[in-house]
Amino acid sequence: MSDCEDEDVGTRLAAQLEDDVIREALASGTDLRQYSQSVEKELRQLENVSIKDYINKAQNIATLHHQITECDDILENMQGMLSGFLTHLSSISSEIQSLQEQSTSINVQLSNRKLVHGQLGDFIDHLMVPEVMIHHILNTPVTEDTFLQQLKALNEKSKFIKEQNFRDAHSCQDVQDIVDKLTVKAVSKIREYLLSKIYQFRKPLSNYQIPQNAMIKHRFFFEFLLLHARTIAAEIHDEYVETLSKVYSSYFQSYTKQLWKLQYEEGVTRDDLMGVEDSRSNSFFQKSLKSRGTVFTLGKRDTVLSPTGLTQDIIVPHTAGKNEARYPFEVLFRSQQYALMDNGCREYIFLTEFFMVRDADAMKLFMSVMGKALQHVQKEVCGVVMGCYDSIALYLCVHLIHQYRLLCHKRAVPALDNHWEQLIQMISPRFQKSLKIN
């Protein structure tokens, strides 16, 4: 043997010696040849048993083989069926995709038709003038809710027709004449109604709030006139301004004249003061006080500044005259200014809501209505104040002005700010002068 072969044999022997069975046999001192024959004998016995067992189960194995063959055929058939089904599904998928595309196209067409149908429906509804509208515009009194509802509907139709006329829509020409005639009729009825309410202000001893509340309830009437008959709207505007200006001016002239007659006959005069004589005088302050000790006594005179005193009902000269009641100047001043403030605030709110004006336009309109009354009140107050030596009355009047200005601001009415400022400029210098004289 060569060295390589010896080395190979040695390697194999070393590998065999590592086997657990051989190692166990060597450890027990068993002869390897006998051990090998014993193992071979056992293997043959096992082989014979296996062959015998196989022969005994040959029928079962044959049956199993037959079943496997049948299953194989069935699976082959199922494979063919599944292949056909897969092919069919592929064709169905193409059909579904085609149907989806058709459905999308149909949905788009349906949406377009619905959109057109809705627009055409709205268009026709705006063009169509129903019999109920014609009936209520022509026959229903303007004070009923149905007339107001149909008037708003008529206003919308008129706006729609004007918009379509800008687009040269010839289909509107058929109903243009009907809508115009209904608008003319509505304008006529509204004009008659609003003028009747304005004329109610001219009645003696009338409650101004009743016609004003009725006009506010139907303020859409004036908006309708602005849109469709600006000349009539201007007529209503001017008639209201002229009427209310005369009403307020007449009322405050009469009220102030009667109010001043209720002042104490014994007022504070220059003879009651300790300083320089004031050459000016006034009929309200001509007689000297019988008791000089009461000239500078406050007493309960400041009750006019209390919360209840500020908003107390105004003095009714006719009733007070019957009762021979007399008041200090600040009480009469409070009644006059509270009446002016209450009427002024209510009038400003009415003007902004009914005539739809704001800011500078509202101030201008307010002065058109209340300007004459304010001027007269300021003139009368100035005449009395210039002859007044009662510093307490003047002091209370200044505070009354501040309180009423705050009340106006709480009511969101800035229109009387200038009036309050004018009164302050009249009374403050006189108050300071009376203090110096004292």
UniProtKB/TrEMBL annotation:
Boundaries of every Vps52 coiled-coil domain copy = 53-225
The GO terms describing molecular function are: syntaxin binding
Task: Please list the residue ranges annotated as the Vps52 C-terminal domain.
Answer: 242-436
Primary subcellular site in the record, as a coarse category? Golgi
Q: What Pfam families is this protein classified in? A: Vps52_C (PF20655), Vps52_CC (PF04129)
The family line of this record is: Belongs to the VPS52 family.
**PANTHER family in alphabetical order:** SUPPRESSOR OF ACTIN MUTATIONS 2/VACUOLAR PROTEIN SORTING 52 (PTHR14190), VACUOLAR PROTEIN SORTING-ASSOCIATED PROTEIN 52 HOMOLOG (PTHR14190:SF7)
Picking any one GO biological process from the record gives:
protein transport
InterPro entries attached here? Vps52, Vps52_C, Vps52_CC
- The molecule here is called Vacuolar protein sorting-associated protein 52 homolog
Tell where it localizes: Golgi apparatus, trans-Golgi network
GO terms for cellular component: cytosol; GARP complex
The residues the entry assigns to the signal sequence are none
The lineage, from the top, is: Eukaryota, Metazoa, Ecdysozoa, Arthropoda, Crustacea
Assigned keywords, A-Z? Golgi apparatus, Protein transport, Transport
